[in-house]
Specification:
Layout: E1 6-9, E2 19-22, E3 27-34, E4 41-52, E5 58-59, E6 73-78, H1 87-104
Antiparallel strand pairs: 1-2, 2-5, 3-4, 4-6
């Protein structure tokens, strides 16, 4: 389903539309219960991050561009279901981001 260096994302935790991005294009890893776009609440914290809306390699995301002219940064949800193959890399990226935030205040 995935190849090395890519991650599947979606706008909301329960959306059936997924987009594939290069792992290097994903930034701002964090845990959140609020999705991007429509700010839908999730039943528990999920890993979220940010991507440029025009950098998707494959797939489809719920994204209208209504929040400003494209391209721009959008918040996405990363679920284990689509990313089992390299979930450890995703968790590592999240941990690294959390350490950076802690060290910069």
């Amino acid at each position: 389903m995935s190849s090395p260096g890519v991650v599947w994302v979606r706008r909301q935790w329960n959306d059936d539309r997924d987009g594939k991005y290069r792992l290097a294009e994903v930034a701002g890893w964090h845990l959140s219960t609020e999705s991007g776009g429509i700010n839908q609440n999730a039943p528990r914290p999920f890993i979220h991050a940010y991507v440029q809306c025009d950098k998707m390699i494959q797939g489809e995301l719920a994204h209208s561009g209504a929040h400003g002219p494209c391209p721009h940064r959008i918040k996405v949800c990363v679920t284990k279901k689509m990313n089992k193959e390299f979930w450890k890399e995703i968790q590592s990226a999240l941990a690294t981001e959390q350490v950076k935030r802690k060290n910069t205040g």
